[in-house]
Design a protein that fits this description.
The complex is a heterodimer of chains A (267) and B (314). Chain A is an alpha/beta fold. Chain A has helices at 48-56, 78-81, 102-110, 124-137, 154-167, 184-201, 212-217, 236-240, 244-254, 262-266, and strands at 5-14, 22-32, 37-42, 63-68, 71-72, 85-88, 172-176, 205-208, 221-226, 229-235. Chain A starts with a strand and ends with a helix. The mean pLDDT of chain A is 92. Classes of the chains: A alpha/beta (267), B mainly alpha (314). The structure holds adenosine-5'-triphosphate (ATP) and magnesium ion.
């Protein structure tokens, strides 16, 4: 069996040739097995989001290769890669279309990677299915199928985006600090839903977080990024037995004795 | 003096102008429908309209002069509009030109093309022309009820068609693109394709409107579309201000919204006539239209700003 995701020596520099030139990814290598759930930590600007964006194809990478389940996607445009990927963003506004209803958003997600034609945008049968899936969230959304998503709270929108990401089983689920904009209680709930969806569908997932405890508790593998590189990669028992202070120590070691930034300490 | 002025105004003149206003409003409503698609659904300020409207007229008139049935000529007016929208779409998506600029480039280019199609700046179809889809003379004819009935039916059919298109998978994809392109791409939608498709559909309707309007007027003019976008926006905005609340939250609310655009266009022409009736110089009509649109566009923004301020004060 091959890997679900292979990132080979990926480089990305923004604003090449200007004073704002910034090396964001400096030779990233990573291989994920099917069913791996990896959490990603690192300071601000370490390249976590850039890594996920490189996979999603928001822009082309400068160098390196991206392979999903044996398919080389390095040169595919973003909308074609979407066939393989489920994505949830930090900003709850980004994952859904605010002026469209809950069911319309879900129907769009259900057609990810398929040809869209002149068939009706949503069928009665789908509607029933969505109702069932929404009910599982326990947020009462199953009664509001035709409500505009823009009327919902950030947490509700994030929960729907998660459902949408898994409606059509993705080969890889990308979560970029998807609970960071939520209040602690809602964040915990959304995280719980994430775990459940990943578990029930047997998804391979990557989750960026600034919360070290979450990074340790969730998933079976943890990587730490620093200056565009993966500097630490643990899994299995070793990961489970990590403590927050272990991670802080690692971080300080990597950044050459520099203190971990505030956001990491607070987490 | 004021009394002189007032007594010189003839209320029956207003009434007499009403059928013409309705006909004109319904015809221009087709263009406004196109503007609604780009401006509201795709969130793209498309100025191609000013050019593609004249193109539709030019194509229709030249084909009719060449002996084609006026109704068939409308198909080509629609196709010409599609082509215009395609050019704007490609300039924007394939060549990365900002939307408004891309549409202005097409609009300018179309001016020359329209002159090329017609060979001169104005071409008219003879008074005796038969089988016109719409015409000024129908408005005063004895059986004008039938003309209006047909016109209204035609507009409703268009509403039904647009309603259907935006209910399909492709239509939903276009709506998602307009609302949130990032989400659309993450869900596998080729947003370049949907943008071009929407621009084509919109300008197709505008071309169709141009073709019908040229028949209505009995001539096509290279300047027919000047300021058309403002009229389209005015119709859309008037309809939203008056019917916005009424249309929302119901079943088929989208169909009501689309129909309201036609009413908005009619009201625009009623207001237009009213202003002329008050003997305001017609030279200022465009200024008047621009001010009306600017105000209505500004109202929601200012309202929101005011509301925020009040919330902060609390
Ligand atoms: N589209 C872009 N254009 C220019 N620079 C960018 C872009 N995206 C990211 N960068 C830069 O690349 C570097 C890495 O950014 P990235 O967003 O990956 O950090 P991160 O690890 O996600 O940090 P954070 O924890 O703050 O989200 C930063 O210096 C950032 O400013
Ligand atoms: Mg980030």
């Amino acid at each position: 069996m091959g890997y679900m995701l292979e990132i080979e020596n990926v480089h990305k520099t923004f604003n090449i040739g200007t004073i704002n030139e910034k090396v964001a990814l400096n030779g990233v290598n990573l291989k994920l097995n099917e069913g791996d759930f990896v959490t990603i930590i690192g300071g601000n600007g370490a390249g976590k989001s850039t890594t996920l964006n490189a996979i999603a194809g928001v822009w082309p990478v400068d160098q390196g290769k991206l392979i999903v389940d044996g398919t080389d996607i390095t040169r595919l445009p973003e909308h074609k890669r979407a066939a393989y990927l489920g994505r949830v963003f930090q900003d709850p506004m980004i994952g859904t279309a605010a002026t469209m209803s809950i069911e319309e958003n879900m129907a769009i997600a259900a057609r990810r990677g398929e040809r869209r034609g002149f068939g009706w945008g949503i069928s009665k049968k789908e509607r029933e299915e969505y109702k069932k899936k929404l009910k599982v969230l326990g947020l009462g959304l199953e009664e509001r199928l035709s409500s505009r998503v823009g009327l919902l709270s950030g947490g509700q929108r994030q929960a729907i985006t998660l459902l949408m990401a898994a409606l059509k089983k993705p080969k890889l689920l990308l979560l970029d600090e998807h609970t960071a904009a939520l209040d602690p209680k809602t964040a915990a709930k959304v995280l719980e839903i994430s775990d459940k969806i990943i578990d029930e569908n047997g998804l391979t997932a990557m989750m960026v977080t600034h919360n070290m405890k979450d990074a340790i508790v969730h998933g079976n593998r943890l990587i730490m990024m620093h200056e565009g590189k993966i500097i630490y990669d643990v899994s299995g028992e070793e990961k489970k037995s990590l403590s927050v202070s272990d991670l802080l120590a690692k971080f300080e070691e990597a950044s050459g004795g520099e203190f971990a930034n505030d956001r990491m300490l607070l987490a | 003096m004021i009394i002189n002025y007032l007594s010189s105004l003839d209320p029956t003149a207003l009434l007499r102008a009403l059928p013409g206003n309705v006909a004109q409003g319904l015809i221009w409503g087709i263009m406004a429908l196109g503007v609604y698609i780009t401006f509201r659904i795709l969130d793209f300020a498309d100025l191609t309209v000013d050019g593609s409207l004249a193109t539709g007229g030019a194509v229709a008139v030249m084909l009719i002069k060449g002996g084609m049935h006026p109704a068939v000529a409308l198909i080509f007016a629609f196709l010409a509009g599609l082509a215009a929208g395609f050019i704007t779409g490609m300039l924007h998506t394939a060549f990365g030109i900002p939307g408004i600029l891309a549409s202005i480039l097409t609009q300018i280019a179309l001016y020359s093309i329209n002159l090329g199609i017609m060979g001169k700046s104005n071409q008219s179809i003879g008074i005796a022309q038969q089988n016109l889809v719409a015409s000024l003379r129908y408005v005063t004819a004895d059986d004008r009820e039938i003309f209006f009935l047909k016109l209204i039916l035609g507009c409703l059919l268009l509403v039904a068609f647009v309603y259907w298109v935006f209910g399909t998978e492709i239509g939903s994809a276009i709506r998602a693109t307009g609302c949130n392109p990032q989400m659309a791409r993450a869900q596998g939608i080729n947003t370049n394709f949907t943008k071009v498709a929407a621009l084509m559909f919109s300008n197709g309707l505008v071309g169709l409107c141009g073709g019908i309007y040229a028949q209505y007027q009995g001539s096509a003019d290279v300047n027919a579309g000047r300021g058309a976008i403002v009229i389209g926006l005015a119709a859309v905005i008037i309809s939203e201000v008056i019917f916005g609340k009424l249309c929302s939250g119901k079943r088929f609310s989208f169909a009501y919204t689309l129909s309201a655009v036609f009413v908005g266009a009619i009201l625009y022409y009623v207001a237009y006539t009213l202003v002329l009736w008050l003997r305001m110089p017609s030279d200022y009509m465009k200024l008047f239209s621009a001010i009306v649109v600017a105000c209505f566009l500004a109202i929601p923004y200012l309202k929101e700003k005011h509301a925020v301020k009040r919330r902060m004060a609390k």
